[in-house]
Design goal:
Layout: E1 2-8, E2 11-18, E3 21-25, E4 35-41, E5 46-47, E6 55-60, H1 64-69, E7 79-84, E8 88-89, E9 94-96, E10 104-106, E11 108-114, E12 130-137, E13 140-141, H2 142-147, H3 152-155, E14 161-168, E15 177-182, E16 185-191, H4 199-209, E17 217-219, E18 227-228, E19 234-239, E20 243-250
Parallel strand pairs: 6-17, 8-14, 9-20
Antiparallel strand pairs: 1-2, 1-5, 1-14, 2-3, 3-4, 6-7, 10-13, 10-18, 11-12, 11-17, 12-14, 15-16, 15-19, 19-20
Length: 255
């Protein structure tokens, strides 16, 4: 099932996507809901980020080929950082480079959407608290990342966490193709089977330290092939079984 968040006639709703249409539901997908029977063509609505998380936990160095290209060692346990809720944007929105940024990079990522409160979840039960999966982009000010001890400025700036186009609830994330393109040119091509730590392991690990709330997101890391994107570019992330997330890119905002 594909669960979307959309705007129509000035009103924001959630719905179930089937083919080229979306049927509105009576509540959010994080609460009991019913189908309303109100169906709209996708072309007549604006898709938004499929959830509005209280926080995004983003995992670093979780693909062996990316670890190698960064000149790092494979971590012994998951390493994660945070993006604030204000970093989240949706399909066809624009990633805006932060003031002073000289290199803005794409990082295409499978992203986990939490469906219920999760605290110290046992790895065997992690799937029980996952609502589904969506596409994500960990937009990164690479020059800031190199300069700063902490990554808040480099990875937490406004618009740095595009998510979408919807949440796929019926998906096995073990071995999915992930492809990132800039202006139609393939830049990243990997499979989730190359992740060092699986999605359930990441949910269990993060929830040991941080309570995850319904709608929170874990970005599971990126494969090799990271690189820059510039003003006017279009960046897409396609994940097998989910769909395509596309965003625009704008040069640095005024200081």
């Amino acid at each position: 099932m594909k669960l979307a968040r959309f705007k129509r006639a000035g009103r924001i709703s959630y719905g179930i996507v089937e083919g080229q249409s979306v049927e509105e539901i009576s509540s959010t997908p994080f609460l009991p809901y019913e189908r309303t029977g109100e169906v709209y063509a996708l072309e007549d609505v604006r898709l938004l980020s499929p959830c509005m998380p209280s926080k995004v936990a983003a995992v670093a160095l979780n693909y062996s080929d990316h670890v190698k290209e960064m000149g790092k060692q494979v971590p012994v346990h998951p390493v994660f950082f945070f993006k604030p809720s204000t970093a989240v944007v949706g399909p066809l929105d624009t990633v805006i480079a932060p003031p002073g940024c000289e290199r803005l990079d794409y990082e295409g990522e499978l992203s986990v959407v939490i469906g219920s409160v999760a605290r110290s979840v046992d790895p065997a039960r992690a799937k029980d608290v996952i609502l589904g999966y969506t596409c994500g982009i960990d937009a990164t000010a690479r020059d800031f990342q190199a300069e700063d001890l902490q990554w808040g400025r480099a990875k937490g700036f406004d618009t740095s966490a595009p998510l979408g186009p919807w949440i796929e609830t019926e998906l096995d994330p073990v071995d999915l193709a992930l492809t990132t393109r800039v202006n139609g040119s393939v830049k990243q091509k990997g499979r989730t089977s190359s992740m060092v730590f699986s999605a359930p392991v990441l949910v269990a690990f993060v929830s040991r330290y941080v309570t995850l709330l319904p709608g929170d997101v874990i970005m599971t890391g990126t494969p090799a092939g990271i690189g820059p994107m510039g003003d006017g570019d279009r960046c897409t992330v396609e994940i097998e079984g989910i769909g395509v997330l596309e965003v625009g890119v704008r040069g640095p905002a005024e200081a």
